[in-house]
């Protein structure tokens, strides 16, 4: 018959048992910790996916999976900005106009959303106006200038390539693919707007880190 161990004290073990016990315990402890870490990570991943799905539903997004039309447009500062130059970031791409009341109403909450996310290295907000000339846009921003990129598409050619002719409309580009389309204005101050983008940013950050390694 095998030996029966008492729980009272390790001193009751034989020298051989005292040597064997820690050796057997270490692999068991490592396995327990690894299992716990797996369940925690799986739970966090599942929660993140759930947050993304819920936030997307509340935002009423239309899921897409298509390559975005490339563009190179003039910025508010007179520089050329291209989609390619934005790399693999999560790009919040909004088409708007100064003569569009829903666009004007939406703009302040867009800026507040940008201010919450601007420190994220894998996020970029771009607003492309379809106004015919910069004078109209500069008058619109005469008292303030948002921190995100303002570009101009004077002949609406880029907007048309994306399929936009009624404004505002927003596209979310992730890892070089259009993943979401949002028709019409939104209140970007909502918790689910921020949660949706943060979920995508976390995914992009992980993917970019994997590429770097």
How would you describe what is shown here?
- With 213 residues, the protein is an alpha+beta fold.
- It folds into 2 domains: 11-47; 61-212, Glutaredoxin, CATH 3.40.30.10.
- 46% of the residues lie in helices and 20% in strands.
- It contains 5 helices and 8 strands, in the order αββββαβαβαββα.
- The protein has helices at residues 15-59, 101-117, 134-140, 157-162, 191-212, and strands at residues 62-66, 72-75, 80-82, 90-96, 123-129, 149-152, 169-174, 177-183.
- Strands 1-8-7-4-5-6-2-3 form an 8-stranded mixed beta sheet.
- Strand 2 (72-75) and strand 3 (80-82) form a beta hairpin.
- Helix 1 packs across helix 5 (191-212).
- The longest helix is centred in the first third of the chain and has 45 residues, at 15-59.
- It is globular, with a radius of gyration of 27 Å.
- The model is unreliable at 5-10, 35-47 and 208-213 (pLDDT under 50).
């Amino acid at each position: 018959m095998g030996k029966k161990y008492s729980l009272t004290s390790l001193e009751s073990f034989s020298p051989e048992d005292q040597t064997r016990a820690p050796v057997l315990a270490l692999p068991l402890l490592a396995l327990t910790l690894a299992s716990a870490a797996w369940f925690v990570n799986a739970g966090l991943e599942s929660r993140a996916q759930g947050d993304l799905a819920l936030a997307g539903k509340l935002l009423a997004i239309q899921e897409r999976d298509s390559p975005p039309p490339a563009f190179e447009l003039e910025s508010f500062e007179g520089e050329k900005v291209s989609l390619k130059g934005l790399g693999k970031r999560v790009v919040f791409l909004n088409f708007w106009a100064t003569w569009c009341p829903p666009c004007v109403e939406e703009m302040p909450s867009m800026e507040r959303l940008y201010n919450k996310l601007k420190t994220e290295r894998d996020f970029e907000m771009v607003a492309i106006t379809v106004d015919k000339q910069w004078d109209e846009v500069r008058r619109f921003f005469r008292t303030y200038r948002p921190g995100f990129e303002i570009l101009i598409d004077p002949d609406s050619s880029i907007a048309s390539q994306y399929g936009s002719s009624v404004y505002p409309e927003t596209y979310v580009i992730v890892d070089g693919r259009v993943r979401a389309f949002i028709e019409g204005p939104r209140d970007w101050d909502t918790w689910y707007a921020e949660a949706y983008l943060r979920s995508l940013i976390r995914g992009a950050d992980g993917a970019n880190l994997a590429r770097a390694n």
